[in-house]
Each structure stands twice: as C-alpha cells, then as structure tokens.
Amino acid sequence: MIILGIESSCDETAAAVIENGKTVLSSVVASQVAVHHKYGGVVPELASRMHIESILPVVDQAVREAGLSIDDIEGVAATKGPGLIGALLVGFSFAKAFAWARGIAFAGVNHLEGHLYSLMLNAFPPAFPFTALLASGGHTNLYYVTSYNEFELLGQTRDDAAGEAFDKVAKMLGKGYPGGAVIEKLALQGDPDSIKFPRSFLDKDGFDFSFSGLKSSVARYVKEQKNVLDEKKTADIAASFQKAVIDVLSFKLIRAALSKTCSRIALVGGVSANSFLADELSNQALKHGMNFHVPEGEFCGDNAAMIGARGYRLIKDGKLSGLEDDVFSRVKKA
Ligand code: KG4
Ligand code: ZN
Asked: Is 263 helix (H, G, I), strand (E, B) or coil?
C-alpha cells in the first residue's frame, strides 16, 4: 500500500511517500528555520503562512521523487496534533481534501506516535515490547510500547522539554534558534565536568522530568560571568549543561526499562540526533544487556515519513479519520 504522509505541526512542511509502512520512497522536508531564526523561536502566524506556501510544492516534489503519479497514492496520513493549530490546519486540511477528491483512505496521526514510528523505518525495528524516550522541542515523554497501537505513558516533563532547554541555553549563549545542534557542536570543545549544574531526578522512583531548575542555574551562571563569555567558557557551559541533561534522561530511561523488565530501549524525537546522548544510551544498554534503537539521522527531527508509517498502520487497522475530524494543540492531561 502506498501512503502519502504529511507533517505541518511546527516549523517544517514535510511530505513523504511510504510503501507498506516501511519503505521510504521519498521524504521531503521544507524547513522554515531561516525565517524564524531572527525571532529566536517559532512565530506561529509566520509558520502557518509558510506552510500554505510550501504544502503544494512539497507534496508535488515527494510524489515526483518517489517516481510515482498521484494516481498511485492509496491513502493519506497527516499530523492531527499536538502542535500549533494554525500550522496543523494547513497539512490536515490539505490531506482531507486530497483524500476526498481522490476517494482514498485518510488517517489523522498523533505526532508523538509518529516519532515512535520513526523506529519502524529502521532496517531492524525494535520488537515489542520496548521502552522509549521521546525527547523533542515540545515533549519529554517515557513510553512503554507493547504493540503497534499501545503506548503506555510512564512519565513526562513537568515544565520545559529537553529540546526546549537546549534551545533556551543556546539563546543565553547568544547562539540563536534552534539550539540543539549548536550546543552539541560547542560541547565538543568543552569540558563536561567543569561546571556542576544540578540534575533534577525529582522523586527517584517516578518517571517525570524537570528541566527548569537546570535552565535557571545556567542563566545564573551566565549572569555571574557578567555576560562576558570567551570561547572556552561558552564551550564548557554547553558541555556541562548537555551532560546534566543526558545524565537525567539516561538514568530515567534505563530505570523505566528495568521497572518493566524490558530488554529493549529506544530514543526518538529531535533530541535523538544528539550523538553524546545516543552514545551514552548505547553504552548503558550494553551494560544492562539491553538492545538500543534510534532512528536514522534524517528521521530524528520532524518529518513526514514517520507520519506515513504510522498512518499506514492506522489505515490497515481500519482506524480512519473523517472530514469532520479536527486538529488539536495539546494532549489532555489525565
Ligand atoms: O522533534 P523535533 O524536530 O520537533 C518537535 O516535535 O519539537 O525536535 C526539535 C528539538 C529542538 O528543541 C532542537 O533543539 C532539538 O530537537 N535538537 C537537538 C539536536 N538536534 C535537534 N537537541 C540536542 N542535540 C541535537 N543534536
Ligand atoms: Zn516532533
């Protein structure tokens, strides 16, 4: 089955063509980073407008690069939420119209489940059950995944998301948006043990996270330097901050897996592009006799291939969406 996946929840307009939920025939991502960069974060109104401009050319390019025509598309999947409402509406409405006009199946996809499905695009996807950490700009969630459709939420952040903390610290260091990749690069030159930033484990038995204390601590430290930071100091701050985040993320993921006597761990979401974090988890997995899974680099951040992969499963299982379905901005807390 050939599925067209569409993603527009934040600042990437993406389309992909996926065969049988697994083979990526094409994956196109039009990033808006250059536009939002000068504002230090995503401007929702600008994002919506840029999605409107990009959606048709991006879909057109994805179908062409797959070597197909639109007559070959048998189902459409688009991100339904969570995300920016105005941004989501562009991709979701496009997908509805496309499916209706072509008389094909349509599935609305939860963006977070999409990130988990980025693992299904690997040559060797994890078997069930596996314990996954989803770390992105908006979420830091721990899941116990027992089947294609069951994702038990074990814990989540109580304040900032891990990726958001990277972005904010990059901004404090005068490095602009988005910050994850910049911090990782700076950290290469720094000493991760030079500055003792706090690790918030909250109650050690729980699986929730908190990164606001760490963020404030970095802000205080930067202020104490009277905002004069040479290259070495900037690199030391980046490396020490990154180490603090990694210590907490890896501790909680491993503990969650152990609590479920689960021998497979996975890392997904934009922060999974961080090689220091992936290396640490890979080492920890080895130590505990677990297998470690991470998506291919191009599917770590927001993309439509993962949405197509999730959509394929929903369509196959008859979990279709209708024209009356709507987007949502956040997941309701229980
Ligand atoms: O999954 P994603 O592309 O979008 C959301 O759903 O939020 O994640 C984006 C986040 C940003 O906060 C970005 O700074 C972070 O992922 N990120 C990284 C790295 N690359 C992207 N964080 C740490 N290290 C990286 N190399
Ligand atoms: Zn995402």
From this structure: coil
What CATH number is given to the structural domain containing 36?
3.30.420.40
Contacts of 119 (CB under 8 A, 6+ apart): 125, 126, 132, 266, 268, 293, 294, 295
Q: Return the pLDDT at 6.
A: 98
pTM: 0.96
Tell whether 189 is covered by a domain. Answer: yes
CA distance 161 to 166: 9
pLDDT digit string, tens, across residues 125-139:
999 999 999 999 999
Whether 95 and 220 share a structural domain:
no
Label residue 169 by pLDDT band (50, 70, 90).
Answer: very high
**Token digits for 236?**
């030391």
CA pseudo-torsion sign 121, 126, 128, 133? negative
Residues 111 and 152 in one domain: no
* 269-to-35, 192, 298, 327 alpha-carbon distances in Å: 22, 23, 11, 20
CA 238 to ligand 2 center in whole angstroms = 23
**Tokens representing 293?**
């899974």
Q: What is the DSSP letter of 201?
A: -
Closest CA to 122 of 21, 271, 1, 273: 21
**Of the candidate ranges 18-27, 41-50, 247-256, 282-291, the one whose mean pLDDT is the lowest:** 41-50
Could you tell me if 28 and 68 lie in one domain?
yes
246 and 112, same structural domain? Answer: no
Ligand 1 atom nearest to 273, measured from its CA? 26
193 and 94, same structural domain?
no
Provide the residue range defining the domain that includes 174: 126-294
Q: Is the dihedral of CA 227, 230, 234, 240 positive or negative?
A: negative
Work out the angle at residue 215's Cα, subtended by the Cα atoms of residues 213 and 217, and round it to the nearest 5 degrees: 70
Ligand 1 pocket, residues with Cβ under 6 angstroms: 10, 136-138, 163-164, 166-167, 178-181, 184, 269-271, 273-274, 301-302
Let me know if 87 is exposed, middle or buried by CB neighbors in 10 A (0-12, 13-18, 19+). Answer: buried
Q: How far is the CA of 109 from the centre of ligand 1 (A)?
A: 20
